[in-house]
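Now for a concrete sample entry.
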Amino acid sequence: MSSVSPIKPEFADSLSQAVRDVEVIARKSGSMDNPIMSEPITRPELDAKLATIEAKMDGRIARIEDAVRDIRDSLSSTRRNVWGAAAVTIAAVLAGFALIVTSFDSGRDTANMATAAQAQTNAALAEIRQIVSDLKSTAPPPSQ
Protein backbone atom coordinates (compact mmCIF):
# COMPACT_ATOMS: atom_id res chain seq x y z
CA MET A 1 0.00 0.00 0.00
CA SER A 2 1.56 3.27 -1.04
CA SER A 3 0.93 6.60 0.57
CA VAL A 4 0.67 9.83 -1.35
CA SER A 5 2.53 12.78 0.09
CA PRO A 6 0.71 16.12 0.11
CA ILE A 7 1.55 18.67 -2.55
CA LYS A 8 3.57 21.61 -1.27
CA PRO A 9 1.74 24.95 -1.51
CA GLU A 10 4.30 26.50 -3.85
CA PHE A 11 3.80 23.62 -6.33
CA ALA A 12 0.01 23.42 -5.90
CA ASP A 13 -0.44 26.80 -7.59
CA SER A 14 1.72 25.75 -10.52
CA LEU A 15 -0.13 22.46 -10.86
CA SER A 16 -3.56 24.10 -10.76
CA GLN A 17 -2.41 26.63 -13.37
CA ALA A 18 -1.25 23.77 -15.63
CA VAL A 19 -4.66 22.09 -15.27
CA ARG A 20 -6.39 25.36 -16.17
CA ASP A 21 -4.13 25.74 -19.22
CA VAL A 22 -5.05 22.24 -20.42
CA GLU A 23 -8.76 22.99 -19.90
CA VAL A 24 -8.46 26.22 -21.90
CA ILE A 25 -6.74 24.39 -24.74
CA ALA A 26 -9.41 21.69 -24.65
CA ARG A 27 -12.21 24.30 -24.74
CA LYS A 28 -10.61 26.15 -27.66
CA SER A 29 -10.29 22.92 -29.59
CA GLY A 30 -13.98 22.12 -29.18
CA SER A 31 -15.93 20.23 -26.58
CA MET A 32 -13.91 18.63 -23.81
CA ASP A 33 -16.02 15.51 -24.10
CA ASN A 34 -16.07 15.45 -27.90
CA PRO A 35 -12.92 13.98 -29.42
CA ILE A 36 -13.80 15.50 -32.81
CA MET A 37 -12.49 19.04 -33.02
CA SER A 38 -14.94 21.66 -34.26
CA GLU A 39 -12.16 24.05 -35.32
CA PRO A 40 -8.99 22.44 -36.53
CA ILE A 41 -5.84 23.92 -35.01
CA THR A 42 -3.03 24.84 -37.36
CA ARG A 43 0.39 23.33 -36.97
CA PRO A 44 2.15 26.63 -36.13
CA GLU A 45 -0.53 27.38 -33.51
CA LEU A 46 -0.08 23.93 -31.96
CA ASP A 47 3.70 24.33 -32.04
CA ALA A 48 3.42 27.70 -30.30
CA LYS A 49 1.14 26.30 -27.60
CA LEU A 50 3.42 23.33 -27.05
CA ALA A 51 6.46 25.63 -26.89
CA THR A 52 4.67 27.79 -24.29
CA ILE A 53 3.79 24.75 -22.19
CA GLU A 54 7.33 23.44 -22.52
CA ALA A 55 8.78 26.78 -21.39
CA LYS A 56 6.46 26.84 -18.38
CA MET A 57 7.39 23.28 -17.48
CA ASP A 58 11.11 24.07 -17.85
CA GLY A 59 10.67 26.95 -15.41
CA ARG A 60 8.81 24.73 -12.94
CA ILE A 61 11.44 22.02 -13.19
CA ALA A 62 14.18 24.60 -12.63
CA ARG A 63 12.38 25.78 -9.46
CA ILE A 64 12.08 22.17 -8.27
CA GLU A 65 15.78 21.59 -8.95
CA ASP A 66 16.63 24.74 -6.96
CA ALA A 67 14.47 23.52 -4.08
CA VAL A 68 16.18 20.12 -4.12
CA ARG A 69 19.60 21.81 -4.22
CA ASP A 70 18.63 23.98 -1.23
CA ILE A 71 17.50 20.89 0.68
CA ARG A 72 20.77 19.10 -0.09
CA ASP A 73 22.79 22.11 1.07
CA SER A 74 20.74 22.28 4.24
CA LEU A 75 21.25 18.55 4.91
CA SER A 76 24.97 18.88 4.26
CA SER A 77 25.17 21.75 6.74
CA THR A 78 23.17 19.77 9.30
CA ARG A 79 25.39 16.75 8.81
CA ARG A 80 28.50 18.88 9.45
CA ASN A 81 26.90 20.32 12.58
CA VAL A 82 26.06 16.85 13.91
CA TRP A 83 29.60 15.57 13.34
CA GLY A 84 31.01 18.71 14.95
CA ALA A 85 28.79 18.24 18.00
CA ALA A 86 29.82 14.57 18.22
CA ALA A 87 33.51 15.55 18.09
CA VAL A 88 33.04 18.15 20.83
CA THR A 89 31.17 15.62 22.99
CA ILE A 90 33.89 13.01 22.57
CA ALA A 91 36.58 15.59 23.36
CA ALA A 92 34.68 16.67 26.50
CA VAL A 93 34.33 13.05 27.68
CA LEU A 94 38.04 12.40 27.10
CA ALA A 95 38.98 15.62 28.92
CA GLY A 96 36.76 14.62 31.84
CA PHE A 97 38.35 11.18 31.98
CA ALA A 98 41.84 12.70 31.87
CA LEU A 99 40.87 15.04 34.72
CA ILE A 100 39.61 12.11 36.81
CA VAL A 101 42.82 10.14 36.22
CA THR A 102 44.96 13.19 37.05
CA SER A 103 42.99 13.85 40.24
CA PHE A 104 43.34 10.23 41.31
CA ASP A 105 47.09 10.27 40.68
CA SER A 106 47.42 13.59 42.50
CA GLY A 107 45.55 12.21 45.52
CA ARG A 108 47.71 9.10 45.54
CA ASP A 109 50.90 11.20 45.29
CA THR A 110 49.67 13.45 48.11
CA ALA A 111 49.01 10.41 50.31
CA ASN A 112 52.51 9.07 49.58
CA MET A 113 54.07 12.46 50.37
CA ALA A 114 52.08 12.72 53.62
CA THR A 115 53.24 9.24 54.66
CA ALA A 116 56.86 10.13 53.86
CA ALA A 117 56.59 13.42 55.78
CA GLN A 118 55.12 11.60 58.79
CA ALA A 119 57.96 9.10 58.71
CA GLN A 120 60.55 11.93 58.55
CA THR A 121 58.83 13.75 61.41
CA ASN A 122 58.83 10.57 63.54
CA ALA A 123 62.50 9.99 62.75
CA ALA A 124 63.39 13.59 63.61
CA LEU A 125 61.41 13.37 66.86
CA ALA A 126 63.18 10.14 67.82
CA GLU A 127 66.52 11.77 67.04
CA ILE A 128 65.68 14.83 69.16
CA ARG A 129 64.62 12.60 72.06
CA GLN A 130 67.89 10.71 71.77
CA ILE A 131 69.87 13.96 71.84
CA VAL A 132 67.91 15.19 74.87
CA SER A 133 68.47 11.87 76.60
CA ASP A 134 72.21 11.99 75.85
CA LEU A 135 72.42 15.56 77.13
CA LYS A 136 70.66 14.64 80.34
CA SER A 137 73.00 11.73 80.99
CA THR A 138 76.20 13.73 80.35
CA ALA A 139 75.16 16.94 82.01
CA PRO A 140 76.38 17.61 85.58
CA PRO A 141 73.73 17.44 88.20
CA PRO A 142 72.24 20.76 88.99
CA SER A 143 73.81 22.47 92.00
CA GLN A 144 71.79 23.89 94.79
